[in-house]
Design a protein that fits this description.
alpha/beta; Aldehyde Dehydrogenase, Chain A, domain 1; Aldehyde Dehydrogenase, Chain A, domain 2; 2 domains; seven-stranded mixed sheet; globular
């Protein structure tokens, strides 16, 4: 399975060009050169996808769980059989190291289909006995046509995390991947055709948010929206979808604290903190971008973090030794660089990084940025309050548990938090008081697909993952039978 230069939409079981005949440039972030073209789809393409989904829904919703499971498992197998091709395509599209795409992104996409193929066989509903009167039981039925819109940072990983449970539950899907990283979603279309997924069950339409995403949000026959992306975009989606009474799952931004106490396992903490700071060049909503360190070990931590950060290799995403590839686009590079300049204006000191990496040959114009560590900022400055989404972390000391909690909870976000300590009573106190949907203790990004995932405050509404996803993509109906 290989990428193509001109991508197509996947509608009604076929690969088709956009109705307008117009295409958008797809740029390789590592070279800053156009390497393919994606459909510049419009409302007419979305309408075709909805018509196909509407036609397919009666048959798909009545398809046995075993058959749905078999087809999702087959898609998972095809992704695994083409892992190298998918990983290389993801790397070229997103600028991330091939090694990361090979070990994280594509295996997780494969696992998403595999997990929900199995989970749907064990998904059950409730029964409630009214003694001497009646039996109540709950039917969970597919909603109908649902919209899935995913971001550019973990393209296939997050795209499949939405699509797989929606299909498993018996819905038909109209999905839009990010226009910044469309290639592996296009390759997924080919995998679905090879697997024999019935026509119209899944429709993948490429294009820009205002022209292709907005018609998904607005379409009256699309009954639920699952979106991952920025908080401001999520707010606009909610403003349109909520008055139409659509179900909404919004996984939005994060400004996650990494809280380090002096009694931690220092070496393990350093190893994981380096990863939680700069994995995927910091372009993961779960990265710990605010590092809070107990004062007694602050100087030791600072010296070690700077040393390890400076040792990270930024360069050719295809090279085995590369730790960080390119940022995803010129616009995003400019955004992250602007925050680094802002950090200086707000009184911060750049301990390392902060500038573009000079490259040669094919990569001389690529969007490469050195990982950056900043200290000396107040907890409430813009750099510590706003999502940067790049290889930039701030560090600051704290003296008490209460002070650490006040800093950690000070932002409008509440996606995740990490705590490093051996004190189990402290773990319980912190976990109870931290305002976050996911809390990691002495680890980071350790995910069990059975568990709920999502944030509080401006980090979103709803939960993904496990049975929560299957509940989201179904409608409960209570049946009361009197004796």
């Amino acid at each position: 399975m290989t990428p193509d230069q001109y991508l197509k939409n996947y509608i009604d079981g076929k690969l088709v060009p956009p109705q307008s005949g117009q295409y958008l440039d797809n740029v390789n972030p590592a070279t800053a050169e156009i390497y393919s073209y994606l459909p510049d789809s419009e409302a007419a393409d979305i309408e075709s996808a909805v018509v196909a989904a509407e036609k397919a829904f009666p048959g798909w919703s009545k398809t046995s769980l075993q058959e749905r499971s078999r087809l999702l498992s087959r898609i998972s197998e095809i992704i695994g059989q083409n892992l190298t091709a998918f990983a290389e395509a993801e790397s070229i599209d997103a600028g991330k190291p091939v090694s990361m795409a090979t070990t994280i992104d594509i295996p997780r996409a494969q696992e998403n289909f595999k997990f929900f193929a199995t989970a749907i066989l064990h998904f059950s509903s409730e029964a409630h006995h009214m003694v001497g009167q009646a039996i109540n039981f709950t039917l969970r039925q597919p909603i109908g046509i649902v919209g899935c819109i995913s971001p550019w940072n973990l393209p296939l990983y997050l795209f499949t995390w939405k699509i797989a449970p929606a299909l498993a539950a018996g819905n038909c899907v109209v999905a839009k991947p990010s226009e910044v990283t469309p290639m592996t979603a296009y390759m997924l279309s080919k995998a679905c055709i090879e697997a024999g997924l019935p026509a119209g069950v899944l429709n993948i339409v490429h294009g820009l948010g205002p022209k292709a995403g907005q018609p998904i949000i607005e379409h009256p026959k699309i009954k639920a929206i699952s979106f991952t992306g920025g908080t401001e975009t999520g707010r606009r989606i909610a403003a349109v979808a909520a008055p139409m009474f659509k179900k909404l799952s919004l996984e939005l931004g994060g400004k996650n604290p990494n809280i380090i106490f002096a009694d931690c396992d220092f070496e393990e903490m350093m190893k994981v903190t380096l990863r939680s700071s700069f994995a995927n060049s910091g372009q993961i909503c779960l990265c710990g971008s605010r590092i809070l360190v107990e004062r007694s070990i602050y100087d030791k931590f600072k010296a070690e973090l700077v040393k390890r950060t400076e040792s990270l290799v930024v360069g050719n995403p295809a090279a085995d030794e590369t730790d960080l590839g390119a940022l995803v686009s010129q616009a995003h590079l400019e955004k992250v660089s602007a925050y680094i300049r802002l950090a200086k204006e707000e009184g911060g000191t750049i301990l390392c990084g902060g500038e573009r990496v000079p490259m040669t040959g094919d990569f001389k114009n690529g969007y490469f940025l050195r990982p950056t560590v900043v200290e000396g900022l107040s907890y409430d400055c813009r750099v510590n309050q706003e999502e940067i989404f790049g290889p930039v972390v701030t560090i600051m000391p704290f003296d008490t548990e209460e002070e650490a909690l006040s800093y950690a909870n000070s932002t409008r976000y509440g996606l995740s938090a990490t705590v490093w300590t051996k004190d189990i009573t402290r773990v319980n106190r912190m976990s109870e008081k931290l305002e976050a949907g996911v809390i990691w203790i002495n680890c980071w990004l350790l995910r069990d697909l059975r568990t709920p995932f999502g944030g509080v405050k401006n980090s979103g509404v709803g939960r993904e993952g496990g049975l929560e996803a299957l509940r989201f993509f179904t409608a409960p109906k209570n049946i009361c039978m009197k004796y």
